[in-house]
Design a protein that fits this description.
The protein has helices spanning 3-11, 36-50, 56-60, 65-76. With 79 residues, it is mainly alpha-helical. The chain has one domain (3-14, 27-76): Non-ribosomal Peptide Synthetase Peptidyl Carrier Protein, Chain A (Orthogonal Bundle). The chain is globular.
């Protein structure tokens, strides 16, 4: 998994935010469109695409998209 692929998958969960706003350094909780529904969508995405445990508590510890990516990479054994 590349961070570019993950960012693309992450961005697909949003309807109103311009895809160019999504970078590794994007503070996703500051996006105007961010909501608790998006939190659930991101957790479901990680479960469906990567089949690893990722919880709301994990998401709370993250500030940027790169933070989420690092957790996924570690749990997949590739980071």
């Amino acid at each position: 998994m590349s961070i570019e692929l993950f960012i693309s998958q992450f961005a697909e969960q949003f309807d109103e935010t311009d895809p160019t706003e999504f970078t590794p350094h994007t503070e996703f909780k500051r996006l105007n469109e961010w909501s608790s529904m998006h939190a659930l969508l991101i957790i479901a995405l990680i479960d469906a695409e990567y089949n690893i445990p990722f919880t709301g508590e994990d998401l709370q510890t993250c500030t940027t998209i790169a933070d989420i990516y690092q957790i996924i990479s570690r749990r997949m054994g590739s980071g």
